[in-house]
UniProtKB/TrEMBL annotation:
It comes from Clostridium bornimense. SUPFAM superfamilies: NAD(P)-binding Rossmann-fold domains. Pfam families: adh_short_C2 (PF13561). One of its GO terms (molecular function) is 3-oxoacyl-[acyl-carrier-protein] reductase (NADPH) activity. PANTHER family: 3-OXOACYL-[ACYL-CARRIER-PROTEIN] REDUCTASE, SHORT-CHAIN DEHYDROGENASES/REDUCTASES FAMILY MEMBER. Its EC number is 1.1.1.100. This is 3-oxoacyl-[acyl-carrier-protein] reductase FabG.
Amino acid sequence: MKLDGKVALITGASKGIGKEISKEFIKNGATVIINYKNDTEYGDITFNELQQYGIVERFIGDVSNEEFVVSMIDSIISKYGKIDVLVNNAGISSFNMLVDTTISDFNNIMDINFKSVYLLSREVLRSMMYAKGVILNISSMWGEHGSSCETIYSASKGAINAFTKALSKEVSSMGVRVNAIAPGAIDTDMNKHFTEEEKKDIEEMCSLGRLGTAKEIAKVALFLCSDDSSFITGEIINVTGGKI
Ligand code: NAP
C-alpha cells in the first residue's frame, strides 16, 4: 500500500496509460479521482471497473479549459481537503506533415498536451505547497528526440520536459517533487491507427523488439509518486524498451 491515505488526480484516465495508472494507485491505497473528456460508455466501463478496487470519483471535462480545471480542483479540495498526487496524463497525438497542419491543429495539440499541464499544476500547487505533494507529467520520448510528422506533438512534449525541470526547482523547497515519464511506443488506442507493417517498424526501433504496455508505465508512475522515489525530482524518466 504505497499510497495509503493519499488523494490522487489522474487526467485522461478513461483508457490506456491513465486507466492503468489509476488502477495501480487504487490498488495501492489511494483515493483516486479520474478525469477524461468525453461522456461515453467507454468512460462508464472504466469507472465501474475501477470501483471494484477501491474509492474512485470522476470529473468529465476538457483539461485545456481553465474554467473546468479551476472548478474541478475546487470541488476536490472542498471534499477531500487536499490533493497529494497529480498525474498530468491527458494527451492527444496527430500524424501529419507540418505543411499540412493548420493553426487549429497547433492550438488543439498545444492546449490539450501542454496548457493543461500548466493549468492543473498551477491550481493543484495552491493546496499542495508544504504538503509533500508529487506532480508527475506524462511526456514522450519524442519530447527529447523529435518525431517526423509529429512535430507539434514532439514540441508539446518538449515543453512538458522543460516545464517539469523548471517547476521542480521552484517548488522543491516546499517539499513538492515534480517528475515526468517519457514513454516509448505503448500499445494503446493512441497507436491504433498504425498498420501492422508500421507497428512492426516501430517494434524494430525498440531494443526489446515490442511495444510497451500501459501497465509497464503505471508501475513506474507508482514508484515516482510514492515515497520510494523520495530523492528524485526534476527528472524525465525514459521508459522506452531501449531505443536503437
Ligand atoms: P489514449 O489511450 O488515447 O487515452 C487518452 C486519454 O486522454 C483518454 O482518456 C482521453 O479521454 C483523454 N483526453 C484527451 N483529450 C482530453 C482533454 N482535452 N481533456 C481531458 N482528457 C482528455 O492515450 P494513451 O496512449 O493512454 O496516452 C496517455 C498519455 O501518454 C498522453 O499524454 C500521450 O501523449 C502519452 N504517451 C503515449 C504514448 C503511446 O505510445 N501510447 C507514448 C508516449 C507518450 P476521452 O476518451 O474522453 O477522449
